[in-house]
Amino acid sequence: MLLELGSNQFQVDLSKPDNIYLQVIEGPNMGHIFSVPKSNKSSLGRKTTNNINFPDDQHLSNVHATFYPVEGIYYIEDMGTTNG
Which of 25, 38, 49, 64 has the fewest CB atoms in 10 Å of its CB? Predict the structure, then answer.
């Protein structure tokens, strides 16, 4: 699955039991891989308090997206911001 957030495009790997892996395949952070635990809520955005943060990406909002599990299904929620 591909996911585009801000200036980066991610390849999403859901095959591991405990974590989701997001590999940046296009954009300024190409090559970086981020791990998101499937067991709890995580956030992605420009603020450094996010689990995954890109402080210099002006196409992201402070908290741009949230990753969270519900009954064994993992969701990615766009926070509805208008900055990217």
Answer: 49
